[in-house]
Protein: histidine kinase
Amino acid sequence: AQQMLVSSEKLSTAGQLAASVAHEIRNPITSLKGFLQLLETGIEGKEAYLKIMKDEIEKIESISSELLYIAKPSPNEFEEANIIEMLEDVCLLMRSQARLDDVEVVLESDLDHHMVLCDRSQIKQVFINLIKNAIEAMREAGTITVKITYDETLSIEVMDEGEGVPDSLKERLGQPFLTTKDKGTGLGLMVTMDILKNHEAELLIKDREPKGSIFQVEFL
Ligand code: ADP
Ligand code: MG
Structure:
């Protein structure tokens, strides 16, 4: 079974997003304030509190940097670019992160050259987000395969060996702040889907046998 992911117009309106951003940032700020008050009273076990405070600050930091994409003032910069070379760059970049988790990133391609009209840095961001999710989905050593095929349309599949996406979550993917991770922001797929929409490309999700998922980008 495969499913096409479409961004929800309703949820991506500025007002709704602003409300959820305020909410997501207020939680860590409230907790920071509480811990600061505790520290002022000079309690024991400072280190543990400082560690939590650092985590909360990091959370605000990652939310802010992902939101910068949405607020980005510069317009799209579309140009003809070799997508195979761009994917080679992204795989190389992600390998250093994957290696820490004993995960390999393999690129399989029918072609070594294929030009696509795109905003380079945005399309790179799409595959960074998908490969990052793939790495995070794998609990043990294994392989992520990025498979490029061309048959009337260009298709790029990011295939992992993780736990897969539960059906109940599939239709909600791309909603802002939807995350199942302790340190997740739940913004990666929203940004990914927005970029792909600007490129008239589609994102499909499929289950992988025997385990894992496939996030497929199809350029129309
Ligand atoms: P984040 O990675 O910060 O949680 P994303 O928008 O990138 O936010 O992903 C949202 C959620 O979708 C994740 O928390 C996870 O539950 C699910 N997900 C995304 N990619 C995968 C994948 N490859 N395998 C399993 N679950 C995934
Ligand atoms: Mg992510």
